[in-house]
Design goal:
Number of strands: 6
Strand content: 5-15%
Order of helices and strands: HHHEHEHHEHHEHEHEH
CATH architecture: 3-Layer(aba) Sandwich
Helix content: 40-55%
Number of domains: 1
Distance between the termini: 33 Å
Structural class: alpha/beta
Largest sheet: 6 strands, mixed
Oligomer: single chain
């Protein structure tokens, strides 16, 4: 027999279970909501260890999103998962250029990934942006190069691509860059993690 539980109660209980299973593990209070939201999304407690935050990254993310900052992501999955209702009330939008025909054409002509070209297109936006990368390490590499060239100034980089090729190395680049960051070191991550981190920041504003 299954107990009938209301949706909001499911989340409340889940967070209570996460807190219990973390035991006496002490999380930084500023980062705790983000870490728990990612664990809630993935059921993976490794994120209590492998999420890295630059000093004040969560506070910075909350500040800029409250001020109407836009979000750029590298996948339609993350685009779907980010709470656009909350973001729009703050004056922000979510952008994902990965499926744009001009991005696909440019990427093919140059022999590079669509994710890299999508970051170049995002750099042309006339708005402050948080970059939430959950799939493509080439997006992080492109961001790194664009920052070096002075063509983009991310308000926050959420660097959580998943996989095996250039994933670890791309995250290491972001850890050494000047932009505020939240990075999942190692091979783990994903679009769901990128969306979860964005939502954790947004929920700190809306609740």
């Amino acid at each position: 027999m299954f107990e009938i539980v209301k949706p909001m109660e499911i989340e409340r209980r889940s967070m209570a279970i996460i807190t219990e299973l973390l035991g006496d593990r002490a999380l930084d209070p500023e980062n705790e909501a983000v870490i728990k939201r990612v664990i809630h999304t993935t059921a993976d407690f490794d994120y209590a260890d492998n999420l890295r935050f630059s000093p004040g990254a969560v506070a910075k993310g909350v500040e800029v999103l409250r001020a109407g900052c836009h979000i750029v992501t590298d996948t339609t999955m993350a685009l779907s998962g980010i709470n656009k209702t909350v973001l729009s009330k703050l004056g922000g939008q979510v952008h994902c250029f990965i499926a744009d025909p001009d991005v696909a054409t440019e990427a093919k002509s140059r022999g590079v990934t669509r994710a890299a070209v999508a970051m170049e297109k995002a750099a042309e936006l006339d708005a402050p942006c948080v970059f939430a990368i959950g799939n493509a390490p080439t997006a992080l590499i492109a961001l790194h190069r664009l920052m070096e060239a002075g063509k983009v100034r991310p308000q926050l980089i959420i660097g959580v691509p998943v996989g095996f090729v250039n994933v670890v190395e791309s995250k290491e680049l972001i850890l050494g860059d000047p932009a505020p960051y939240i990075v999942a070191v190692g091979r783990k991550g994903g679009s769901n993690v990128a969306a979860a981190i964005c939502n954790a920041l947004l929920y700190q504003i809306s609740r």
